[in-house]
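Q: Hi! First time asking for a complex rather than a single chain. Here are the components, and I think there are two in total. Is that enough to go on?
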Amino acid sequence: MATVTELLLPIEMDLEHLLKDLRVLIGAGHPILQAAAEHLFSAGGKRLRPGIVLLLSKALSVDGQFSKRHRRLAEITEMIHTASLVHDDVVDDASTRRGVETVHNRFDSKVAVLAGDFLFAQASWHLANLNNLDVVKLLSRVIMDLAEGEVKQGLSKFDAKQTIETYLEKSYFKTASLIANSAQSVGVLSEVSDIELKCLYNYGKQLGLAFQVVDDILDFTSNDKQLGKPAANDLLNGYLTAPTLFAIEANPRLSELINREFSLEGDIEKALQIVRDSNAITRARSLAENFAKESCESIKWIPESPSKRALLDLPEYVLGRLY
Amino acid sequence: MATVTELLLPIEMDLEHLLKDLRVLIGAGHPILQAAAEHLFSAGGKRLRPGIVLLLSKALSVDGQFSKRHRRLAEITEMIHTASLVHDDVVDDASTRRGVETVHNRFDSKVAVLAGDFLFAQASWHLANLNNLDVVKLLSRVIMDLAEGEVKQGLSKFDAKQTIETYLEKSYFKTASLIANSAQSVGVLSEVSDIELKCLYNYGKQLGLAFQVVDDILDFTSNDKQLGKPAANDLLNGYLTAPTLFAIEANPRLSELINREFSLEGDIEKALQIVRDSNAITRARSLAENFAKESCESIKWIPESPSKRALLDLPEYVLGRLY
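A: Yes, that's all I need. Here is the structure of the assembled complex.
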């Protein structure tokens, strides 16, 4: 199976430039923000979001070239994503994210608030100057969805009565909305038809949902390097994701443990055992597979090119993280 | 002299509705945000910013009526202002603002980050849906200026070498930009001429600067209710405003005290004495008077009406706070 680096190969150089530009843009003139920018936009991150925007931009262009506005859109996407991560880390009081120390922990929450605001502000300014009201609307919707998702996530902590639908709605707000609406925005800039716009949106939405479900499964199945066992951080913190919600359906006793917020000794181990003994992981996996499949279906109409190939391989790559 | 309540009389009901709408909009569906919204949008605040937008909307309308979009613009203005205050209070670690406990202190900084993000997000969403790219650009510039102002303010703490120009630039970013650009936005929605747009911008800019300078003078001259003497909070925290910068010109010894960040006993008292013994307050006052005068000059062309009268009286009211 392809690695993410291979997938992003068609736009590798563009992505590198973009990250360099972002580091300069955010860091300019402020030593502390500069340190935060270095930290945030250093090499090594996956940068899937701007990667998808650039791959789509290339795939939708006749000659494989794309405009400065497409490039700017990719930058805006990454700015919004990073800004929301930095603020979420303050709200969730997270000390690390994917093994890297958070800005809020490395510096302090003041720098994190400032850096996030600065990124949001830059994003909204560059967005306005793309001079396209439709794109402004699509991405301001994303900013609203991200805030709404964070609020909803906080509200539904340890709520064992929530449905898989609420979970998917939250996942859309927090993850899929940005990918869906930025994919559609590429279509707007590339002036594709209304039906094709819908397909692009759908590609991003389904890919985003697949991505989120896979992430949530991995929290249960992948071994934490330091712990040597699954971190199950989401469950511990009361964030009930697909595996947990399916496990509750299979064994309602799990609800009791959640309702008392794992306050008795051994509760969390019991909860993990219930998840493992049920068909929850299998069901969650098949949910992700469906999203991935639908995602691919949505862009069949795009003409063949290495970029299109990469876009079709992306959902498979996302699923591949499970094996 | 008129009170602010008298000045806002022409749009009193509109302003009341607006605050009610904001409370509902922000609080809907989230108990903690609701508490924060009650706290932020409770009656009693001066609400000068949406007040100016509504007065201008009324003054520029032939029949004294204005559209839903004008009203929405006023709401957006207040959302952006409040969002930036809430986040600034986290960054500045402020426990009270104008005698009222800050969100960050009353709840915690997580709620403050969330509430601010939610407000910014709502603002950017409603902004996009005003369906006017010029207005989107003007107000996204404001969001950028606010972030930039907060960054610059942090950087220039205890910097005795900064000039009055840097101070005014910062004041523009932090205070005047919002009033200037929202005033111009009213003009865009009311379809006035380009020259008139400039005048509206200028009215807001000069009024905003007058407002900021007066605020900064008051920190030195008005007695804090609890302290029974001027709070001089800005100076204590290293924010060097007009009075301080003029006092440095008159007596460079003040720089030494600032450079050592008032670390020796009696430093702050000495500094205040230097400000008092100099012509700094007089010079700052005359600076504010000039801004106020220019502000009035900028809107002479607006047809007579009670709203125009109130707009002309506003700069005088701002100065009146000094006496």
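A: Chain A has a mean pLDDT of 91. Let me know if you'd like any chain examined more closely.
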